[in-house]
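Below sits the subject:
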Amino acid sequence: MIKRMLIMLVLVVAVFGGLGGMKYAQIKQAMSKMGPPPPAAVSTVVAAYDDWQPQLEAVGSLRAVNGADLAFEVPGIVEEIHFNSGDEVKAGTVLLKLRDDEDVNKLHSLQAVVDLAVITYQRGIKQLPSQTISQAAVDADKSELDAARANVAEQQSLIDKKVIRAPFDGRLGIRAVDLGQYLAAGTIVVTLQSLDPIYVDFFLPQQALEQIRIGQAVTANVDTYPGQGFPGEIAAIEPKVDSASRNVRVRAALKNPDHKLLPGMYATVDIATGEPQRYVTLPQTSITFNAYGNTVYIVDKGQPGADGQQQLIVRQSFVKTGETRGDQVVILEGVKEGETVVTSGQLKLRNGVPVAINNSVQPSSDAAPAPVGY
């Protein structure tokens, strides 16, 4: 019985082994007819030297050189408005006036008291040499005259507070009050901003203090105007470092003749910190970043293929990278000028794999990329 089972097992193994061998032969024959796999499609770029300006980058906020929300110090009813929203005004221009009839009438009354005090004092001065009046009486008249004049000045100051004048040249905002409206003291009526030049405030780490100075050139960029830089220079450096963040506050003055920049905008600030350097640069997509080292694939010429045409193969090379700028990265070691480097398609590559170059679509290599749609 056992002998019969062993014979049957041997027959089954032989049958399945024969079938497996036949299938293997069929697959091998089919693969031989298919030929080698097609070359992997990749995009490439030729490594070249580029001028690289060392710079610091920061993000800051814009603020006016002079900016104020204008308001009355005293309450009252708006009687006159002498501006339109958005007007450009000069320093000293009358903008608004509150009703001041009662105050003016009181001023006239106080001025009459001054006039009488002047007459009384002058009469006493004339009588003093004949000793028909005492020195004490003349001094009392002088004191009353000074007090009367002080009352006039106080009343005039109150009237002046019912008029708002532009404290500096600038552009007015949107009017927030109307004729006949009662205003409490401190109610904001309009904002006034001086826009040229305009400040940008930003923070830099304390390590950057050695690289910046007053008067150093900067360029600001805002996403409202992509591709347009606004030149300026460092105007002030805070004389202390924030103990919490270890950052120092820096202020730069920007030229803004067209008033495109407005207070409250945020901007990116580039500060040139040295002489331009020449480096081999590549798109960052060329680099395969690994914990054991960064690599690129370099395209070399291989042996002629079956059709007689020379094949292109890739060679993996370890590289040492430097600073980045937008989509670009500095290559310090591992790539030479003129070498062709793969920029996309690296996942399917290994040393010696044949490739076909297709540069119809290229990864971005912009030093200052802007968001899509701008």
